[in-house]
Automatic annotation (TrEMBL):
Keywords: Pyruvate, Transferase. This is Exopolysaccharide glucosyl ketal-pyruvate-transferase. It comes from the Bacteria. Its EC number is 2.5.1.98. InterPro entries: Polysacch_pyruvyl_Trfase. One of its GO terms (molecular function) is transferase activity. The keyword Transferase applies. It comes from Duganella phyllosphaerae. Residues 51-185 form the Polysaccharide pyruvyl transferase domain. Pfam families: PS_pyruv_trans.
Length: 301
């Protein structure tokens, strides 16, 4: 079974959780067989997957980045990220258990001491669109790099008393590991919808907060809104990053300090325990299904 996840130009914590987590939960089942695809963490229910491949959906979501795929007998759903994904894929709402990164609860055995009062984690694209490291320095806030290794990022989240995050999987992981968080609205509008998809499965009344731009690039992208073609042109013009960077970073720092004083969020303990327990049941079901299919695969070979 091939582990499929989004690979961009830069590492990204949310996507990179896949090769870190799944071999721990499902050892010995992975290969490069393109005819058996496993879709776990991410907005990776796409219409571009090979039509003849069997697609196993295990907590993935639909993010609206492509048209909806045609759901046929090549798709097998164990559970999906949230109610919006279930609705789009014409699934029963009971299939909306939550983002499968919640299963990190079964992988984290040690908790570091809290050494950061407030941390901020930008979306991975904001690491090159903005000046967030400088903004965090000015605010006295710990900067978490979403393009760092999974081990480092998990350490940073767990050692924080509060996480302010533009990265959705910053919030998902913080919530799963019971680190209070403040969600901020992503600079790019196309990333907004999927947050509410995840939150819906946990009955979490998500309250995303606005955050000041840390660069001229981000300020222009905010104004561009859903105009993706304009966003691409703005991002390509790197000279915008060099325009009054200190002034934008100072405004972003003040915004971070303001957000650090509002009440953070967590989903309910009972909802989290229930989601985790049901996902573990699905892991066992998948293992049983793989064992049952193994003799068929051998005889076919």
């Amino acid at each position: 079974m091939k582990l499929y996840y989004y690979r961009g130009d830069k590492p990204n914590f949310g996507d990179d959780l896949n090769p870190w987590m799944w071999p721990k939960l499902l050892p010995g089942v992975w290969d490069d067989n393109p005819n058996e695809m496993f879709l776990g963490i991410g907005s990776i229910i796409f219409d571009s997957h090979p039509k003849q491949a069997n697609k196993i959906v295990f907590g993935a979501g639909y993010g609206g980045y492509t048209p909806l795929p045609v759901i046929d007998d090549k798709w097998k759903f164990y559970f999906v990220r949230g109610l919006q994904t279930a609705r789009e894929c014409k699934l029963d709402p009971s299939m909306a258990l939550g983002d499968s990164a919640i299963l990190l609860r079964s992988c984290i055995t040690e908790r570091p001491a809290k050494v950061h009062k407030v941390s901020f984690m930008p979306h991975f694209e904001s690491t090159y669109d903005g000046n967030w490291r400088l903004a965090c320095q000015l605010a006295g806030v710990h900067y978490i790099d979403p393009t760092a290794t999974v081990d480092q990022t998990l350490q940073d989240i767990l050692s924080s008393e509060l996480l302010i995050t533009e990265a959705m999987h910053g919030a998902i992981v913080a919530d799963a590991l019971r680190v209070p968080f403040v969600a901020v609205e992503p600079i790019q509008q196309r990333h907004h919808m999927k947050w509410f998809d995840w939150a819906s499965a946990l009955d979490l009344d998500l309250r995303p907060q606005p955050l000041a731009a840390s660069s001229m690039v981000e300020a222009l992208m905010k104004k561009a809104g859903p105009n993706e073609a304009l966003v691409v042109r703005i991002r390509a013009n790197r000279r915008f990053l060099r325009l009054v960077p200190k002034r934008f970073a100072q405004g972003a720092a003040e915004s971070l300090l303001k957000l650090s004083r509002i009440e953070p969020q967590l989903s309910g303990d009972a909802n989290m325990e229930r989601a985790h327990s049901r996902m573990l049941e699905k892991v066992e079901l998948l293992k049983a299904d793989l064992r049952a299919a193994a003799p068929l695969v051998r005889s076919a070979g």
